[in-house]
Write a structure and sequence with these properties.
alpha/beta; ABC transporter transmembrane region fold; 2 domains; four-stranded antiparallel sheet
Length: 622
């Protein structure tokens, strides 16, 4: 069982952003544009292909639902016409006559149409919700599987938040867009065409007058958007600065207090918060006046249509009810146009998110494992490095010519200054990276002849940075050896010197660790990781300065647990504090990617070479 934690990238962490708000027909911000919209959409369609039957059904249902809702105002106009005819007959003295039977039939049709339209809307929403969630399920599964196939060097050059955002933010955005925007796109397009057809069926001249209002509305909206764009961009900038400042101050609150930085922190917060408030007021103001401006222009259009409609009604060109129907259509006409503008914005952002997801899925994977002739590895623990040469960048070689022989059961310490290549040797041994040239053999067999899973199953790692997850102590110790019984877990905990403190905890082995396992001390966490390795019973151990971040008393306890763990196993100990490796069978002294000295502690001190200089610099700095 191997325990590893991806190294942190040197890249600066990304600032956390607040919710994206901005100008637009529906009050949204400018869409983030993808590099290749068409290619991304084609790729996304391949994920939709298995559900094409359901998607076609949703499109048809959306069209039917929209048509049903569009017919409503036309029928209401006929009812209005009948009422007006009866009223005019009464005024003219010819008697009040209203065809209530006709009106009843129309109203019954209206009720039926609206009920069917609502049922279709519900059905299309239900089907599309299933489709969108199935697609996002497929995407998340593909991302998760991809994460396990990517080489370690990918994570060395990315922040954890960047990878996490693919499986959370980006996929969520795709989900929302598929569940809402697709049906809304069909509905809006159908409404525009349907309403336009209904308006033309009533009167061409009234339709042309109504359409004249649209360019005027567009000019006004574009002017407002252009003016507000600057303020929304500034709002996002200051919001990011504010979130970043709060996050920094919260995560380092004890340091801020220790250095009396509260006043300076509050001053910076007030400055950024004031800037955010000022631009937010302006941006929200422009967003707020957009709809009233559109309504004002729309109302002018209604007045013009009423005047023209009244004239045409007098001339018997149109009926009174047609004017009422036309005004309803006119009021409904701007809504789908606004929705299409909003959908266009959303699709741009969705395509950008999908593009990031697909770029991640297209990353180069680890080289394929070579099928081994023997599926089971030998378990003696002999390790041989033969002229190993390696560089993270092929142009920059850091391990130039590494050779070493390790016999089964030996304790091998790897020491040297920072950047000498100590940890790199371990990464190569476990095939987190493949070497450029040379050979690494375990029990005489080249590690390239085994799958990575088979190889790593024979290693156990105890690192300086412990890794525990949100679960019980029992589950954390059992991680990697999932079929172990409770009795085996407890036996491993006893061997790792952590059984006593576990029993003293509330809940004992069933105590739930929080997300960062902060309800345990650093030493307790380290002992649990040792128990995990004891349970896996590996033949080869890798210990990477496992006691450097604990107090002296806990260090003695951990060292005792590790001595038990190393007994009878080949052990590689990466050491920074040379006092911890005095009893190593063999010490490999590295400098600039090469072994410059090797031997035991006494021999190396007697040689008075590079190792002696390192040792004396720690214990006799003068």
């Amino acid at each position: 069982m191997s325990e590893s934690k991806a190294p942190q990238s040197n890249a600066a962490p990304q600032q956390r952003r607040g919710p994206m708000i901005g100008p637009g027909m529906m009050g949204r911000g400018p869409a983030e544009k993808p590099k290749d919209f068409k290619k991304t959409m084609r790729t996304l369609i391949t994920y939709l292909a298995p559900y094409k039957t359901k998607i076609i059904a949703v499109i048809l249902i959306a069209i039917v639902s929209t048509v049903f809702s569009i017919v409503g105002p036309k029928l209401l106009g006929k009812v209005t016409t009948k009422l007006v005819e009866g009223l005019l007959a009464y005024i003219s003295g010819t008697g009040l006559y209203t065809d209530f039977a006709y009106m009843g039939r129309i109203i019954a049709w209206l009720i039926g149409l609206y009920v069917l339209s609502a049922a279709c809307t519900f059905l299309q929403g239900f089907i599309m919700a299933k489709v969108s969630n199935n697609v996002t399920y497929d995407l998340r599964r593909a991302i998760s599987e991809k994460m396990n196939r990517l080489p370690l060097k990918y994570y060395d050059t990315r922040t954890h938040g960047e990878v996490l955002s693919h499986i959370t933010n980006d996929v969520d955005l795709i989900n929302q867009s598929l569940s809402q925007s697709l049906t809304q796109l069909v509905t809006s397009a159908t409404m525009i065409l349907g309403i336009l057809a209904m308006m033309l069926s009533i009167n061409v001249f009234m339709t042309l007058l109504a359409l004249f209002v649209l360019p005027l509305s567009t000019v006004v909206v574009l002017g407002i958007v252009k003016k507000s764009q600057v303020f929304f961009a500034a709002q996002q900038k200051h919001l990011g600065e504010l979130n970043g400042h709060v996050e920094e101050m919260y995560s380092g609150h004890n340091i801020v207090q220790a250095f009396n930085g509260e006043a300076e922190s509050l001053k910076k917060f007030e400055e950024t918060n004031s800037k955010l408030r000022n631009v937010a007021v302006k941006s929200q103001f422009f967003t707020g006046i957009m709809m009233p401006a559109m309504n004002a222009i729309g109302n002018l259009g209604y007045v013009a249509v009423c005047i023209l409609g009244g004239y045409l009604a007098v001339k018997k060109v149109v009926e009174i009810g047609d004017i009422q129907s036309f005004i309803q259509y006119m009021r409904s006409f701007t809504q789908p146009i606004s929705q299409l503008s909003s959908i266009s914005n959303t699709l741009q952002s969705t395509s950008a998110a999908a593009e990031r997801v697909f770029a991640f899925l297209d990353q180069a994977e680890e080289t394929a494992d070579t099928p081994a002739e023997n599926t089971a590895m030998a378990t003696r623990g002999a390790v041989r490095f033969e002229h190993v040469r390696f560089g993270y960048d092929p142009e920059t070689i850091i391990i130039k010519d590494f050779s070493a022989d390790v016999t089964p059961g030996q304790k091998i310490a790897i020491v040297g200054p920072t950047g000498a290549g100590k940890t790199t040797i371990v990464k190569l041994l476990m095939r987190f990276y493949d070497i450029n040239s040379g050979h690494i053999r375990i029990d005489g067999e080249d590690i390239q002849n085994y799958t990575r899973n088979d190889l790593r199953a024979h290693f156990g790692m105890v690192l300086q940075d412990t890794w525990l997850y949100n679960g019980t102590i029992l589950e954390n110790i059992r991680y990697g050896t999932f079929d172990a019984t409770d009795e085996q877990v407890i036996a491993a905990a006893k061997a790792a010197r952590c059984h006593e403190f576990i029993q003293a905890l509330p809940g004992g082995y069933q105590m739930e660790l929080n997300e960062e396992a902060s309800n345990l001390s650093q030493g307790q966490k380290q002992l649990l990781t040792i128990a995990r390795v004891v349970l896996s019973d590996p033949k080869i151990l890798i210990l990477d300065e496992a006691t450097s971040s604990v107090d002296t008393r806990t260090e003695i306890l951990i060292q005792s647990a590790m001595d038990t763990l190393m007994h009878g196993r080949t052990s590689f100990i990466i050491a920074h504090r040379l006092s911890t490796i005095k009893n190593a069978d063999l010490i490999l002294v590295m400098r600039d990617g090469d072994i410059v000295e090797q031997g035991n502690h006494a021999d190396l001190l007697a040689a008075n070479g590079f190792y002696a200089d390192l040792y004396n610099s720690q214990f006799n700095p003068e």
